């Protein structure tokens, strides 16, 4: 199991390396022998923003999968005496020694006698070096790999590192964002996968057989599309029992997102099948004596799979935003489980926003993720378009 | 069926229903092919010419049963046995299909871009379970050389080829199961003129070598004239005139044929083009009597009342016009020099 994980990881690395590979000559020599999907990949790699998107998303996904190692704290861990601590400043210039390796100062909390609020005062007497692979309490990565090191930290309890500050229960927001990504980043895949199955099945039936079935399915799609999304989500998620476990709720949310989100895909599949089934290459296959099944699976589906991929890529951010919205409204993932939406719930309070603005940092992650997915979708669409210059 | 007739088209009709409203009420029919009779002889090329939208391609597809014709029948002479193509079930149809193939108009959409040239060519073999992997590969390679491409191109994808090369691949695919009869649906109209000539010569060469029979569909009289043994002229779903190539070109007996011939540009001659008035009639409501009368410069009352019968002119030359004997129509060769 561990071995397969590492091989996946290796593949991932070579994938990223490939994006920036300089070996273009080899590519062009083989261009004539390249299949459509290889051609799409070549063109995709030329799309700078898409490559950026792929890289950034790869980093986001990897860090949230290995959040246990990357994040300095567990997502529910309360670090006593550090309620609403601001983000730790990381210094490289020491007052005594000038430029040095990154280090932090420790905080201490003091009561402001005028406002009666606690304020954090930086204690500059001691510099705590930031170290990589610092020793920590033993824990289990991904629930089964025993580890006793974290990616970074000071290794000293007196000088904690809160990259994005802490919240009202003195939990590290950076760690919570990474753990929250496990829900928020992956809900898109689950939702898109489910809506892909529903959408391509119903759209496929609709497009290939036409007639009354087509009529019924398409009217259903229009009905579903005409209902505003957020009330629909809310109605569905209100039906999710409160006493379900975090995993059950997560699956339920995924299902809800898929049930609302398949309509667009069904339309794409239907339209594509309708136009492709009368294309000359489909006619040629029919003239060769191929069966309907062979025509659909061998000729029609491969002809628009790239469009599906584009559509799905662009659908993922919608799913992520959906989950965030639901959780933000308190209808999605329930605490203590954490997602980007639940993190933003804390930012609903105006005083919190005014005094502790670092609660808004999860928004940046949502925006970046959605943006990067859109870049990738954009790049894929350009690459898959057969009419663009080759 | 005569021994030398390979395909016989008997009163073939292809109507497309026009549906309206939420209940798909049938409000009319487009009569794309409206009762066509043709006999195609073994080893000949029958050129089918007519303007865009006259139903040429629809006829071609209906003959191969790529769409189900509304009425009529198509007979195929399979080992001297007259087989009604339209009455076959799927399994029998597959057998006959092996003898009837099609070359398509647009080389850019007729090949599957996701498959290699080889997979495209051997598709009919795979579907009909002919041969094994090695023999199919050999056949595909032989075919590529036959149509003037290099054997190494087998593992390439269609996107790396030009229009002319793609059309050659399309021809190789049509030939792969050794058909006797090929419907060539505007095979050169999407190509450059210089490439057109190459493809036409290739088709002629293949016909001679492989004893092929062609139904050659084109709107270009020049192309038709170059490849055909006999020419059939189609107008609004009907054949209006048919005859041996030179005979038909020299002595057209239908005003529509004359108008078509007058539109062919020739070097060194001024053209007395006969410009037809108006546009083609509505295929939903075809005119009474002779379908061409609305645009015919010689039309008289009789044309609106009576549908002209097919009548023999000379040898194999037939025309459907009331005044075919009285009209002095101009062909290509007996045109006066300017």
From TrEMBL, chain A:
Gene3D superfamilies: MetI-like. InterPro entries: MetI-like (IPR000515), MetI-like_sf (IPR035906), OppC_N (IPR025966). Its main location: membrane. One of its GO terms (cellular component) is plasma membrane. Belongs to the binding-protein-dependent transport system permease family. It is found in: Cell membrane; Membrane. It comes from the Bacteria. The chain crosses the membrane at residues 49-74, 185-209, 247-269, 300-321, 356-376. Keywords: Membrane, Transmembrane, Transmembrane helix, Transport. One of its GO terms (biological process) is transmembrane transport. It is a multi-pass membrane protein. Residues 181-377 form the ABC transmembrane type-1 domain. This is Peptide/nickel transport system permease protein. It holds the Pfam family OppC_N.
TrEMBL record, chain B:
SMART domains: AAA. It holds the Pfam family ABC_tran. GO terms for molecular function: ATP binding; ATP hydrolysis activity. The keyword Cell membrane does not apply. SUPFAM superfamilies: P-loop containing nucleoside triphosphate hydrolases (SSF52540). Keywords: ATP-binding, Nucleotide-binding, Transport. Belongs to the ABC transporter superfamily. This is Peptide/nickel transport system ATP-binding protein/oligopeptide transport system ATP-binding protein.
């Amino acid at each position: 199991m561990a071995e397969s994980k590492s091989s996946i990881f290796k593949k991932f690395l070579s994938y990223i390396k490939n994006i920036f590979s300089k070996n273009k000559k080899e590519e062009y020599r083989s261009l004539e022998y390249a299949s459509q999907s290889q051609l799409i990949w070549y063109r995709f790699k030329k799309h700078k923003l898409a490559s950026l998107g792929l890289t950034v998303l790869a980093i986001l996904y990897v860090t949230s999968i290995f959040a246990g190692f990357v994040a300095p704290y567990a997502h529910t861990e309360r670090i006593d005496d550090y309620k609403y601590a601001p983000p730790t400043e990381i210094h490289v210039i020491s007052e005594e020694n000038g430029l040095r390796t990154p280090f932090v100062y420790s905080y201490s909390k003091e009561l402001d006698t005028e406002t009666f609020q606690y304020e954090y005062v930086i204690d500059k007497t001691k510099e705590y070096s930031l170290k990589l692979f610092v020793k920590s309490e033993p824990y289990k990565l991904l629930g089964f790999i025993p580890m006793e090191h974290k990616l970074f930290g000071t290794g000293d309890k007196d000088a904690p590192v809160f990259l994005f500050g802490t919240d009202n229960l003195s939990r590290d927001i950076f760690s919570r964002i990474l753990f929250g990504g496990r829900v928020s980043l992956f809900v898109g895949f689950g939702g898109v996968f489910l809506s892909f199955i529903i959408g391509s099945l119903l759209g496929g039936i609709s497009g290939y057989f036409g007639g009354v079935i087509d009529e019924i399915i398409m009217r259903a799609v229009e009905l579903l599309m005409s209902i505003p999304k957020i009330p629909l989500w809310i109605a569905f998620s209100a039906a999710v029992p409160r006493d379900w476990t975090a995993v059950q709720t997560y699956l339920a949310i995924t299902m809800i997102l898929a049930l609302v989100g398949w309509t667009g895909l069904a339309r794409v599949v239907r339209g594509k099948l309708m136009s492709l089934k009368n294309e000359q290459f489909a006619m040629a296959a029919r003239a060769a004596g191929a069966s309907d099944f062979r025509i659909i699976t061998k000729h029609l589906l491969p002809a628009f799979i790239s469009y599906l991929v584009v559509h799905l890529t662009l659908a993922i951010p919608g799913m992520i935003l959906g989950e965030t919205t639901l959780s933000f409204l308190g209808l999605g993932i329930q605490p203590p489980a954490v997602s980007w939406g639940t993190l933003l719930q804390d930012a609903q309070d105006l005083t919190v926003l005014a005094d502790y603005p670092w609660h808004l940092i999860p928004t940046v992650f949502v925006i970046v993720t959605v943006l990067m997915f859109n870049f990738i979708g954009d790049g894929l669409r350009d690459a898959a378009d057969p009419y663009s210059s080759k | 069926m005569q021994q030398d007739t390979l395909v016989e088209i008997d009163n073939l009709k292809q109507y497309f229903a026009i549906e309206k409203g939420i209940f798909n009420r049938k409000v009319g029919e487009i009569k794309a092919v409206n009762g066509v009779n043709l006999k195609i002889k073994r080893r000949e090329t029958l050129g089918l010419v007519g303007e865009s939208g006259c139903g040429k391609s629809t006829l071609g597809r209906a003959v191969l049963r790529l769409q189900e014709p509304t009425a009529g029948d198509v007979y195929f002479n399979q080992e001297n046995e007259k087989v009604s193509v339209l009455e076959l079930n799927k399994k029998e149809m597959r057998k006959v299909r092996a003898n009837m193939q099609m070359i398509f108009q647009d080389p850019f959409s007729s090949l599957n871009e996701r498959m290699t040239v080889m997979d495209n060519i051997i598709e009919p073999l795979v579907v009909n379970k002919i041969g094994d992997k090695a023999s199919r590969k050999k056949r595909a390679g032989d075919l590529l050389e036959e149509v003037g491409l290099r054997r190494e191109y087998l593992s390439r994808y269609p996107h790396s080829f030009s229009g002319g090369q793609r059309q050659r691949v399309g021809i190789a695919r049509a030939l792969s199961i050794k058909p006797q009869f090929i419907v060539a649906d505007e095979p050169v109209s999407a190509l450059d003129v210089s490439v057109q000539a190459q493809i036409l010569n290739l088709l002629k060469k293949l016909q001679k070598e492989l004893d092929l029979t062609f139904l050659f569909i084109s709107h270009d009289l020049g192309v038709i004239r170059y490849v055909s043994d006999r020419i059939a002229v189609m107008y609004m779903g009907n054949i209006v005139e048919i005859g041996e190539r030179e005979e038909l070109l020299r002595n057209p007996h239908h005003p529509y044929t004359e108008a078509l011939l007058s539109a062919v540009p020739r070097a060194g001659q001024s053209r007395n083009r006969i410009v037809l008035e108006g546009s083609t009639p509505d295929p939903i409501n075809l005119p009474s009597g002779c379908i061409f009368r609305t645009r015919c410069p010689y039309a008289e009352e009789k044309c609106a009342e009576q549908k002209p019968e097919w009548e023999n002119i000379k040898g194999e030359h037939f025309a459907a016009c009331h005044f075919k004997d009285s009209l002095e129509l101009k062909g290509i060769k007996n045109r006066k020099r300017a």
